[in-house]
Amino acid sequence: GNSVTQMEGPVTLSEEAFLTINCTYTATGYPSLFWYVQYPGEGLQLLLKATKADDKGSNKGFEATYRKETTSFHLEKGSVQVSDSAVYFCALIGNNNDMRFGAGTRLTVKP
Amino acid sequence: DTEVTQTPKHLVMGMTNKKSLKCEQHMGHRAMYWYKQKAKKPPELMFVYSYEKLSINESVPSRFSPECPNSSLLNLHLHALQPEDSALYLCASSLRPPGQGSNQPQHFGDGTRLSIL
Asked: Given this model, what pLDDT does residue B101 score?
């Protein structure tokens, strides 16, 4: 079945550091890929998405590129802020139409 | 601000109580979802409603009873819950149900944090 694997956390960075959170997937066909962010005490917010190979999703300085050759959708940000501290979930919707989440990666950004 | 509204935000109940969680969206979405999220874990799908009809039940115990009165509202009725049911319950919606057109992202509410005494 479809699955998502993302790097285990927690990740701790200093403000203005470069962020990468790795995400790889297993799916048949051409899934749509998503990054969600969950701030403390809140639900999940859609951060960005990509629906086909080589698409780049971007939002709030975050980017991720759909790489079919490496089945990856790594999340990057050039300069993180304290306010980016949250849990980040990689997810996919595949041909069988159910959403699969990765385990989540907790990011803490220190001033 | 989330476009999916869940009430209450917090709920504490005993194992013999009956309570309901409510979810509302006015985005014209025709699919609605209930998820359960334990601490430090991703959300787990419980139910999917497509065009107000239950389309997926992920083998959820009968002490959880979903209801979709209309296209904007989704309820989750709770009865005789167990301590292990304590979790964050998330509602989500998407423009179209899975399998109908392109894969639509799901929009989540802020959840109801449920504690069973």
From this structure: 61
pLDDT > 60? residue B1: no
**A3-46 tens-digit pLDDT:** 999 988 899 999 999 999 999 999 888 899 999 999 998 999 99
Q: What confidence tens digit (pLDDT) does each residue in B28-71 have? A: 999 999 999 999 899 999 999 999 999 988 899 999 999 999 99
Left if phi > 0, otherwise alpha if psi is -120 to 50, otherwise beta: which for A97?
left
Closest of A90, A66, A80 to residue A8, by C-alpha: A90
How far apart CA A76 and CA A39 sit, in angstroms, is 18
Please count the residues of chain B.
117
Distance from CA of A78 to the nearest CA of B (A): 25
- Residue in B2, B40, B56 nearest the CB of A43: B2
Evaluate the omega torsion of the peptide bond into residue B42 and state whether it is cis, within 30 degrees of 0: no
Angle among Cα A101, A110, A22 to the nearest 5 degrees reads 30
Nearest CA in chain A to B36: A43
Task: Kindly list the residues from chain A whose CB atom is less than 8 angstroms away from the CB atom of residue B93.
Answer: none
Beta strands A11-14 and A105-110 are parallel
Six-digit token pair at B102? 């392109």
Q: What values do phi and psi take at B94, rounded to 5?
A: -140, 155
